[in-house]
Structures are given as structure tokens and as C-alpha cells.
Amino acid sequence: MKDKYTALWVSHSSISNFKKCPRAYYLQHIFRHPKSGNKIKVVGPALALGQAVHEVLEQLSSLSVDKRFRESLIQKFDVVWEKVSGKKGGFVSQEQERKYKMRGQEMLRTVMSHPGPLQNLAVKIQQDLPYYWLSEEENIILCGKIDWLEYLKDTDSVHIIDFKTGRSREEDDSLQLPIYHLLVHNCQHRKVDRVSYWYLEEGPALTQRELPGLEESEQKVMEIAKKIKLARQLEAFKCSQGNGCHACTPYERVLEGGAEFVGRGEYGEDIYMVQESAEIPESILL
């Protein structure tokens, strides 16, 4: 009998973390700090920027088309920013925070002046966290939040859009869009017609990608999910580079006492910041 409470839950974020470094995956998704019993999270400016911008845009998807831009996105952003201001966002100085906040404001000005697909009808999956059984036999669930689902009226289909707040491009072998295609296909009834990235810092143009095949995508996701399951069973989580890499080093700093505790997250996790030299890479997975 399938049991979602004993199942292995995988997402684009957890799969990406495992592929980069099994040790980083362990420290982010399994490890609990012995002093508090809580999971740990390392914050940094890029992560804070992505979190704030995504939260503002996510609010729009719950509003009808005629109400989405009645209020300034900059004003909404200023309110949301308070959640990541200062050490809560891993900022080491007011000047550093100011630069990141300005980047976020500029991204949202782009959206306000060129809303593109955000001014069209949107599909909202009626699950707080969309998920489906990737394999009942293996007891594995695939889950994840999709940034935006544009409704294409002419074909009664869906356009998956992922917002990017970092300056780096998504790798060609990324499983993000394949995973999102699988989730949208299995969590609502409309066909997916296209998939795109929106690199917000580059302007209003979307970068459309080839629609990933469902069968091939499921095979690729299942392959890595089984590896994660086996690693958890064997408790084998070695650093991909053997002695600390950019993915696991910030978390190792926490264990060594070289990070500063700055508060608790919305899910009860312990939040830490490290020195600027050990900042996590400029990327965001939401």
C-alpha cells in the first residue's frame, strides 16, 4: 500500500543538489543540527534576491488578470524584502544589500512595463505543493512548485514559465523543465504546449526551450531518484570532489562553528550566514 509519509519525495531542487554533491544533499535535506534538532539552511544574497522576487510574482498568479498590476510590484517587493533584509538574507553590508535590492526592483520594473504572459489567464494547480507518485513500487513521489502556467486559449493548453533571477543560464541537461512538464501533465488535465525560461535581468523576452518528452523525462528522473533512495538506505553521502566543494562547504562551515546563526525559517529550520568568501553560488531553485 502506498504511503506518502514513508515515501521518498524528490524535486528539481533536491535532485539538483544530489547531482552536484551528495554531501550537500545530505546536509540540506536530511541532517538535523544536534543542538536544536532542526534542519539547517545557509542564506546568501543571491538566494535572498531570488526568494523575494519569486514571492512577489507568485502573488500575481492568485489574482485575476484585471487586478494583477493595480498595485506597484515595487511596493510589494519592499514589503517582502523585509523578510530577507540584513543578516537574514546573508548580507555582509548595507551597500551589498542595496545593490541586490536594486537588482530586484529593476527586474520587477521590467515585468510591470512588459508583463507579456503575466497579463494573460493563468492556470493554478489546486495543490499547495503539486506532486504525484513517480513510482508506487519504489515508493517515490515527485513534487515541486512551478512559477507560472500561462493558459493558451486557442489550444486549451498550458505554457510553463520559469522565472530566473540569477545571471547564469540553465544548463542544457537540466532536469528542471522535464520535471515541471511531468508535474503539470500529472497534476492537471490540460496538455503542455510549450516551456520557457524568463531571465528577468536580461529583459522582457522569454527563452523558449524544446518541450521535453514525458517518457524520456520520467526515465531520467527515475534513474536519479533511485540513486538518491539507495544513498539514503546505505547512508552514503560523500562530497563529489572528495574534500569539500562549493555546494557543501558553506554547510560544513555551520558544523564547524564557522557560520553565524541569524534566525529561524518559515519551516522551522535554523538559518545561518557565512562570510562572503564562502557564499553559496549565485543561483536560485524555487
From TrEMBL:
Residues 10-248 form the PD-(D/E)XK endonuclease-like domain. It comes from the Bacteria. SUPFAM superfamilies: Restriction endonuclease-like. It holds the Pfam family PDDEXK_1. InterPro entries: PDDEXK-like_dom_sf (IPR011604), PDDEXK_AddAB-type (IPR038726), Restrct_endonuc-II-like (IPR011335). This is PD-(D/E)XK endonuclease-like domain-containing protein.
